[in-house]
Amino acid sequence: MDGEGKVDSHYVASNHQHYKRIYQWYEKLTDRIEKVHRYCSETFPDIAIGNFARNQERDETEHPEVFRYFGVGSGSGDSDIAILTQLSKRLPRIEATITEPSDKMIANFKLAISECGNDALQKIKFTWNQATIEEYMKMPQDTKFHCIFLCGVLAYFKDVDQVVQYLYSVLAENGTILIVTESGNETNIFYEVWYPGRFPSINEQIAIPDNVVASFERCGGKVRSSNLECILDGSTLVDEESESGSLLLDLLTGVVDCRKTAPPEFLRQFLDFISDSNVSFKQEGKFLLKNDRVLIIVQK
Questions:
Q1: Architecture category of domain 31-58+66-184+200-231+293-299 in CATH
Q2: What is the per-residue pLDDT across 8-22, written as a single tens digit (0 to 9) for each?
Q3: What is the pTM of this model?
C-alpha cells in the first residue's frame, strides 16, 4: 500500500484515464474551480496590467510593447483563457507561450479558443510547446514575459528552486507571476491525506507554499500570498454504494479502486481521520472537506 519508490497503474498519478473520470466528479463536488476562475477573471488581470503599464510609462518608443504571456503546465487552458480573455479586451498586442506535456490537453486548449466566440482572444499569437517546464527550460530562447501563470503544477517539479530561478529569470521588469497551488496546512484535505507517502510521483515538499515563497524571495522577488477558501463535498465518502464517493476516495488516497483494493484497516483509519480532522466540518446536513488554495503573486 505504501508504494514507495514505484509508480504503476495502481496509482491515480499514472492512470490518466481513471484520473480524467475522477476529475469530472471532483469538479461537481468542489467550489474550487469556480473560485479560481473568478479570481483569474476579475482580480488578477488588473494586477498584471497595472504592472505592465509602469513599463509603458517608461517606454519612450512610439508603439506600445507586446504583452507576453507564459502559461506553465496549462492543461486544457481553462484558467489561462479566463486571464487572457480579460487581457485581450484591454491590451492591443498579446503573444502567449503555452507549455504543456500532454498533446491531448493542448488540443483541448486550442479547441476551447476556437469555440469561445471571442474575436480579441483569437487574435492573440499563440506558441505551443508540448513539453514539461524542465524540458522547456533546456530550449534556446531569450523571451522575457510580462505575465507567468501556473495552476496546480508545483508538486510535479523535480527541483522547485531550479524552476523558480528560471521563471524569475524570464520575468520582465515589472512583470507578474501568479501561482495557484494547494494549501500546505490543515486547511487542505489533499495536503493532509493525498500527498504524504501515498502518491509516489509527487514531491510533497514542493507542494508547500512557504517553500515556494522563500525560493522567490531568495531570487529578489516581491512576494505576497493569500488563502482562497474552498470546500469539497465529501458526503458520499461513507456510502459504499456511491460511485462519486468511491471516485473521490481514489482521488484523496491516490489509489485506483481504493475501496476494493485497500486493506479494510486502511479504509477505517482514513475515514476516522477525516471525521476527526481539522480539515472537515458539517453544514446543512453535508460532510464538507476544506479544499483551500494559496494564491502566490510574485513581482519583479
A1: 3-Layer(aba) Sandwich (3.40)
A2: 456 666 667 777 788
A3: 0.81
